[in-house]
Amino acid sequence: MPVVGVLALQGAFHAHARALKQLNVEVREVRLPHDLEGLDGIVLPGGESTTMSHLLISSGIFEVLAQRIADGLPTMGTCAGLILLAERVLDARPDQVSCSVLDVTVRRNGYGRQIDSFEADIAVKGLETPFTAVFIRAPIIEDVGSDVEILAVHNGVPIAVASQNVLAATFHPELTSDVRFHELFLNMISSGSTAHSGR
Ligand code: GLN
């Protein structure tokens, strides 16, 4: 059984844990550097990336987490979690940190106030039928690097992307009962196509 960590500093981590447990994964809440030991993958949930950034630093986990992901640990980031993976973040406070492992430019709260939360049924590469994507003050992906694969698009804007060991979405796949997006992540872990160095 794979052991998948869920970064549990702030945000929607319980919902991710529930989805993963449904898929017969051993879930571990991750708060401190030693919680990263022996993981087969990790999820960075949605929430508030500014707050998570502070807590990543104050808990002392930021450097080791960023290094593990850069070394190939399979990682899924959703909404604020995607922001914490992006190489370029716009409209963030200057001291906001990112693991900087996903070659995208992302703008925080990019959908603006008037439509700050919405749902859309979208086609996702790898899923046979549409997936209901829930957006909550979501970031907008404004640019993707040439090595980043776009898995889903809404109104011409990429909303789910993959790159090497990273899968990321600007929506919240953990907030519906549909666990197929998490399944894509588990497939990524079990395919062993990453540079994950194991336990
Ligand atoms: N607006 C949040 C941020 O910028 C992300 C929102 C979310 O994760 N639902 O951190």
Describe how the helices and strands are arranged.
Blueprint: E1 3-7, H1 13-22, E2 26-30, E3 41-44, H2 49-58, H3 62-70, E4 75-78, H4 80-83, E5 86-90, E6 102-107, E7 117-122, E8 131-136, E9 140-144, E10 149-154, E11 157-163, E12 166-169, H5 180-191
Parallel strand pairs: 1-2, 1-3, 3-4, 4-12, 5-6
Antiparallel strand pairs: 6-9, 7-8, 10-11, 11-12
Glutamine (GLN) binds next to helix 4.
Describe this protein's structure.
- By secondary structure, the protein is of the alpha/beta class.
- The chain has one domain: Rossmann fold (3-Layer(aba) Sandwich), CATH 3.40.50.
- The protein is 23% helix and 32% strand.
- The strands form 3 sheets. Strands 2-1-3-4-12-11-10 form a 7-stranded mixed sheet. Strands 5-6-9 form a 3-stranded mixed sheet, with no helix packed on it. A two-stranded antiparallel sheet has the order 7-8.
- The protein is globular and about 40 Å long.
- The two termini are 14 Å apart.
- Bound molecules: glutamine.
